[in-house]
Amino acid sequence: MELSGSTFVLEIINFLVLLWLLQRFFYKPLQAVIARRRAGIDKELADAEAMRSQAQALQSQYENRLSHWEAERQRAREALQQEIERERARQQEALRDTLEKERQKAEVSQQRQLLERQQHLERQALQQSSRFATRLLERCAGPELEATLLQLLLESLPQLPAEQCQALREQAAEHPQPAEVSSAYALSEAARQAVQRGLEQLLEQPVECRFGEDPDLLAGLRVSIGPWALRASLRDELQAFADLAQNNARDVPCEHLLDTEADGNG
User: Fold this and answer.
1) Chain segment 183-223, per-residue pLDDT in tens
2) DSSP calls for 78-134
3) Alpha carbon 83 to chain centroid, angstroms
4) Coil, strand, or helix at residue 54?
5) For residue 265, which of 107, 173, 175, 253 sits 20 to 30 Å off, Cα-Cα?
């Protein structure tokens, strides 16, 4: 085959046309596709990196939240334990208070029972003493004992409290009337005069006395001045002792068996 210059030129032109055609219709579109593909890959890589970063951030946040949750759960557990301890302490304190109140109630009940038992025994002792004293003194009743009681009455008149003396004097001054003198046995004239003198000294004025006998007194005297009464008799003292035994009058002093009393409503 013979190579000519024109053929060579045409071949070159064909080659150049081919290059232009390849450049125009194949290479540039291919580069564009490659560029788009590379851009897509870069975008995907960037998205993947962003997703990875976001995933790491989420993982870190999740780990932090888990740590916070664990701390919160630990704090909640500790708070619950403290609340349980406080409630247990409160319940124990309430139980101790209840037990202490029950113990105090039991002690009060026991003390009340002991006191009632003691009062019962005291009443029995007073009643027995009252019966014994009554029988004993009833056997001792006689003119001799009455003379002693008369002397006791005369000695007790000046020792009456000032307010009672004043009340007796006002009664005698406002409502003059005879003094009723009762005795278990008949008084001698000397004894009657002694009684009258004692009353006159007490009332600071003349006194009319009316004497009489009352065997129920057993021994001694009872002097009535209006609503007032001066007692120094065995019967009155025994009655007072019996009343003490009946009423169980605790903390009421009884200095001696025979006493001179002044009672009245005026």
Assistant:
1) 888 888 888 888 888 887 887 788 788 888 888 777 777 88
2) HHHHHHHHHHHHHHHHHHHHHHHHHHHHHHHHHHHHHHHHHHHHHHHHHHHHHHHHH
3) 29
4) helix
5) 253
Spacing of C-alpha 119 from chain mean position: 27
- Measured CA to CA, the distance from residue 98 to residue 90 in angstroms comes to 12
Q: How far apart are CA 111 and CA 95, in angstroms?
A: 24
For residue 225, the cross-strand partners are 228
pTM of the model: 0.42
Q: Where are the alpha helices (DSSP H) in the chain?
A: 5-22, 28-140, 143-156, 162-174, 189-203, 234-247
> For residue 40, what are its two tokens?
């897509």
Give pLDDT tens digits for 217-226: 777 778 888 7
> In this structure, are residues 260 and 230 in contact, taking their beta carbons and an 8 Å threshold?
yes
Q: Is the dihedral of CA 200, 203, 208, 209 positive or negative?
A: negative
Long-range (24+ apart) CB contacts under 8 A made by 128-136 are: 129/241, 129/245, 130/238, 130/241, 130/242, 130/244, 130/245, 133/238, 133/241, 133/257, 134/238, 134/241, 134/242
Burial track 96-135 (b if 16+ CB lie within 10 A, e otherwise): eeeeeeeeeeeeeeeeeeeeeeeeeeeeeebeeebeebbe
